[in-house]
Specification:
Distance between the termini: 90 Å
Strand order of the largest sheet: 4-3-2-1-5
Largest sheet: 5 strands, antiparallel
Oligomer: single chain
CATH architecture of the largest domain: Orthogonal Bundle
CATH topology of the largest domain: Helix Hairpins
Number of strands: 10
Order of helices and strands: HHHHEEEEHEEEHEEEH
């Protein structure tokens, strides 16, 4: 009986010490993981890194450190961690394959947050849609379309397409095509359009507006009218300029043949 008690005492002493050491590893390891995570976040915040990335990297750092701490604690208890690591790796591979699409969206979102091809508030065109950026998350980007629809785009799809940012430069060129009849005076029509442009204070003086004959169409002589405006004034100027030129042409006896040929090679989709 004494021998059995002695054996129990020895086992309890040995494994009790190991258990205490394992608990200490968990306790202090957790404190160290939190400290390192806090330091990493502070460094990134001082470097003015995007808050989304700061939060994500902080969580990733903490999880990685805690994984090492748990493995160290299990090793102290005598548990074979090699097989445990293999199981975790296999599970990670299976999860990765199952979430392949989500992971590609995550990677694309991470890169977009780092390289910033656009920011919240920019008007962009990509993945076949256009709108104002309302939110950039790790997996999706949310746009508000010109007709007030919420468009949610997977980041992978957005990053695989060309992204047109209509806001980032601050200014945009208005592209109009105005036609006159063959019997009308080209110089007179050009001067009328210059005068209409000069009266609109929203149109920038530099770069200088361009007015030029672009095409001798079947029933009209077509001008391109290309003034520059601030991005936010684009559509207001576009509509106002079209109307004012038409009204002034009518008042001055300049005819606009109907229908006009549109020499645009693309459709205006963006809104400043």
């Amino acid at each position: 009986m004494e021998a059995i008690l002695q054996k129990i005492w020895e086992i309890t002493t040995i494994y009790g010490i190991k258990a205490i050491i394992a608990l200490l590893i968990l306790f202090f390891g957790r404190l160290i993981a939190k400290l390192v995570t806090r330091i990493v976040k502070r460094i990134m915040e001082r470097s003015k890194v995007d808050p989304t990335i700061v939060k994500f990297v902080g969580n990733l750092t903490y999880i990685a450190l805690m994984a090492f701490v748990i493995i160290a604690a299990l090793g102290q208890l005598g548990i074979q961690t090699a097989s445990f690591i293999a199981v975790v790796a296999a599970a990670g591979l299976a999860i990765g394959l199952a979430l392949q699409g989500s992971l590609s969206n995550f990677a694309a979102g991470f890169l977009m947050i780092i390289f910033r091809p656009f920011t919240v508030g920019d008007f962009i065109e990509g993945a076949g849609v256009a709108g104002t950026v309302e939110e950039i998350s790790i997996f999706t980007t949310v746009l508000n379309s010109p007709d007030n629809k919420t468009v949610i785009i997977p980041n992978a799809k957005l990053s695989e397409d060309n992204i047109v940012n209509w806001t980032t430069k601050g200014t945009r060129r208005v592209d109009l095509v105005m036609g006159i009849g063959y019997e009308d005076d080209i110089d007179k029509a050009r001067q009328i359009m210059k005068d209409v442009i000069a009266k609109d204070e929203r149109i920038l003086k530099n770069p200088e507006p361009q007015i030029a004959v672009v095409e001798l169409a079947d029933s009209s002589v077509n001008f391109v009218v290309r003034p520059w405006v601030n991005a936010g004034d684009y559509w207001d100027v576009y509509f106002a300029l079209t109307e004012n030129i038409k009204k002034t042409f009518d008042a001055q006896g300049i005819s606009i043949p109907f229908p006009q040929r549109d020499v645009h090679m693309y459709e205006h989709k963006a809104e400043g």
